[in-house]
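Suppose you are handed a protein chain with no further information: no name, no annotation, nothing but its sequence. What can you learn? This example shows the usual starting point.
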Amino acid sequence: MLTDWWQHISFAYTWVLGALLLIPILIIEYTRRNRRTYASMLVTTTHFVQGTTSFKIIARHTMFFLRCAAIICFIVALARPQRKFSEDLTEGEGIDIVLCFDISGSMTSNDFQPNRLEASKEVAAEFVKHRPGDRIGIVIFSNLSFSLCPITTDHTTVLNQIQNIQSGELQSEGTAIGSGLATSVDRLRNSTAKTKIVVLLTDGVDFGGTIPPDMARDMALLNKIKVYTIGVGTEGEVEEVVNGPLGAVTQTRKMEFNENLLQNLASSTGGQYFHATDKQALQKIYASINQLEKSKIQVTTYERAVDKFFPWVLAGVIAVVLELLLRYTFFRKFP
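A reasonable first move is to predict its three-dimensional structure. Written in structure tokens, the prediction is:
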């Protein structure tokens, strides 16, 4: 406990602690005077009373130890011990970001570990943690699209919502890229931020939905929103879970990408297209986006100090009072 106290305490007047060097000097002087005062001479007629030293004689040093303790406490109190607290105030121009997740059945394919969706969620969460000054929102889509979280600086809420994303949550199959992008653009449409971006992650070809991708792209252009597109998944055949009349079933399908569409959405709006073949590649992609879209953030640190000298003053006063009580009661000398 004492070690923990010293680790978190600083002193306003550290030089005052130099006065503690007086304590060893007082102890040496007290020892020297005590030996001189209680010097004894061996007398042959009193050898039979050896070993009769009383408790009172042994305890007479208590008053000196109390006096030393009081001096130590007062010196530490004069050095003004303080516990300091730091507070950070973040200021600057953040970026408004919408993370747009494809949650169709194919996102449960296990060519990523543990699967595409879970890997995407983990990496996206790390991306959010590295954007402290930005407002971030979440959109999910399959055949339908839904705004899961409005753009906000409450990153705890954003991370909780990312954690709760599940495949099949919208209870519809399909990959409506246009609808997902349109909903994301709508989230950013009224934003006053200088930079607005959508990070759209999908593993398939656009089909279904009510808004075509080119219309969603034009909406993004009109509102000056950059679109970063990520095609996630490996080439070849993959297994996916789909909901059938008898429940969820696993089927094999060939991996398809409309890279031209994703590239067009990105290049037309000033963003970039990436293809992630595994979790490590996905991490690098988010790191690249993190570098491309930097926030102008200023962090101001405030330090607040709370004085902790009172317990030392109290302990010193108690030690003085105890010494006086002992001196004028138990160790009182009568003429």
